[in-house]
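Tokens for chain A. Residues wanted.
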């Protein structure tokens, strides 16, 4: 009886918050960094040793002729439920299917199918493809903390005892903060926003092609509550994310007669709010969210707009002064300041210091940059930006050269700038990278009819190739990567999910 009580308590405690190593949304976290900071087996030292390999592959769908096939898996690293301990990956598949995979065993746990896949009448060909639902789990907007492991050197232990007569260190610090904090001026009390009732189990959110947001029990795929109308049917939804009981998503291309913009659904009050993007939203990841809840949206007319959480009221608009953006915004902390980065059509990465009013002009880095950026920091607190780039190095005779490129974010004369870091070896048509601790994972998507896709592991500090998958993946890849502390996942165009990592005993 005692054992049962412990299981219930642990399951409830973790039901409404994602673990730090869980990939919960497009780009991993609320800041869209694609950087997993987790204690696990993956590090630059371990990946180049024998053992990192294909663990399993699972066919989930027939090859799709549409622009999308399977979505990168959303992860739940630790589930304690009625069937014991589980680590699950949730995948959106064509024809409005959602599949849960046991990532330890590489087998299907459950699946659901939602709205019919009949395309809307009179829809454009790009909108009338087999629809793939968008998935997300609850995400914390706080900047994720390092959890030790390979990505951070060990720190000396500290006791919790303060100076004589001052009590514990934590209590003394708390008292000091209370004395220094200014008391707010009295004002009229603000009505509290309604919040969903807490649940004794974790959930996964599914936005299906009919525009309904569904809340599913992660254990078995059953409805945790009734579906709620979020978008018009057959809208092109990107970057679904749920923060502080509000679901946000971006819509593009006018599919389903949905204007380009950001949509917010209050999960407590069931109210939907919309913000329209003047120049069309840039990038596939949707809005990035700062720790204070502010949304950052990059647009195709060279602007980054900031929006209030929940209401989507415009706060401020920053203009790049140049060509439009092609990537979503990426947020990161650099020496105590929040920085915003996005790539533009002219081959630049533009930086915005949260304390300034204009973008910092950076050099042209490539003829073309991809539509996703990745950011991470090494053990010396050096901040890096990583992106796929094309036509980077001229040749004789001229030929395209695709690679993963990295830059350092540094301060020079009180101004934040980018310095060239490293360029990987040639990697045909690479997709956006994902970082696990200090390892950069990137996939060369392959070209029909016979070129295999190749997954690469690179040293984050030098770009040196540590490992590659060779001919293990025979078909091309359309979606990006997702990862946990010990495994990396990708989905191919023929509807197969691949998992790479270190074998474990079962």
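Reply:
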């Amino acid at each position: 009886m005692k054992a049962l009580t412990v299981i219930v308590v642990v399951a409830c405690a973790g039901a409404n918050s994602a673990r730090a190593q869980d990939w919960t949304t497009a780009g991993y976290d609320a800041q869209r960094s694609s950087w997993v900071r987790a204690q696990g087996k993956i590090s630059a030292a371990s990946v180049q040793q024998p053992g990192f390999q294909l663990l399993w592959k699972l066919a989930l769908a027939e090859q799709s002729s549409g622009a999308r096939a399977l979505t990168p898996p959303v992860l739940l690293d630790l589930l304690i439920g009625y069937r014991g301990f589980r680590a699950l990956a949730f995948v959106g598949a064509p024809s409005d299917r959602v599949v849960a995979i046991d990532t330890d065993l590489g087998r299907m746990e459950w699946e659901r199918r939602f709205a019919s896949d009949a395309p809307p009448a009179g829809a454009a060909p790009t909108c009338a493809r087999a629809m793939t639902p968008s998935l997300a789990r609850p995400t914390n907007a706080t900047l994720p903390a390092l959890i030790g492991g390979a990505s951070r050197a060990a720190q000396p232990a500290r006791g919790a005892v303060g100076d004589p007569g001052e009590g514990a260190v934590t209590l003394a610090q708390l008292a000091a903060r209370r004395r220094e904090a200014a008391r707010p001026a009295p004002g009229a009390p603000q009505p509290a926003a309604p919040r969903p009732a807490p649940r004794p189990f974790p959930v996964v959110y599914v936005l299906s092609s009919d525009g309904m947001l569904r809340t599913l029990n992660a254990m078995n795929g059953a409805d945790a509550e009734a579906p709620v109308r979020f978008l018009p049917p057959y809208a092109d939804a990107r970057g679904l994310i749920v923060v502080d009981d509000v679901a946000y998503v971006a819509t593009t291309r006018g599919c389903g007669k949905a204007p380009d913009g950001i949509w917010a659904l209050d999960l407590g009050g069931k109210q939907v709010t919309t913000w329209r993007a003047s120049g069309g939203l840039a990038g596939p990841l949707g809005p990035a969210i700062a720790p204070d809840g502010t949304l950052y949206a990059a647009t195709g007319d060279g602007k980054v707009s900031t929006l209030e959480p929940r209401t989507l009221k415009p706060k401020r608009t920053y203009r790049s002064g140049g060509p439009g953006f092609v990537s979503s915004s990426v947020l990161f902390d650099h020496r105590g300041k929040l920085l915003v980065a996005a790539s533009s059509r002219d081959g630049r990465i533009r930086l915005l210091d949260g304390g300034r009013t204009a973008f910092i002009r950076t050099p042209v880095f490539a003829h073309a940059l991809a539509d996703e950026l990745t950011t991470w920091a090494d053990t010396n607190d050096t901040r890096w930006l990583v992106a796929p780039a094309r036509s980077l190095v001229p040749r004789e005779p001229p030929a395209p050269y695709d690679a993963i490129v990295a830059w350092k974010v540094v301060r020079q004369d009180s101004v934040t700038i980018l310095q060239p870091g490293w360029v990987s070896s040639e990697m045909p048509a690479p997709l956006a990278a994902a970082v696990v601790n200090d390892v950069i994972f990137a996939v060369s998507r392959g070209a029909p009819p016979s070129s295999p896709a190749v997954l690469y592991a690179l040293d984050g500090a030098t770009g040196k190739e540590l490992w590659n998958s060779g001919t293990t993946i025979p078909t091309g890849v359309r979606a990006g990567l997702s990862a946990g502390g010990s495994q990396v996942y990708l989905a191919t165009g023929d509807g197969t999910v691949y998992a790479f990592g270190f074998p474990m005993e079962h």
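Confidence is low (pLDDT under 50) at residues 1-19, 147-186. The chain has one domain: 2-118+128-146+196-501.
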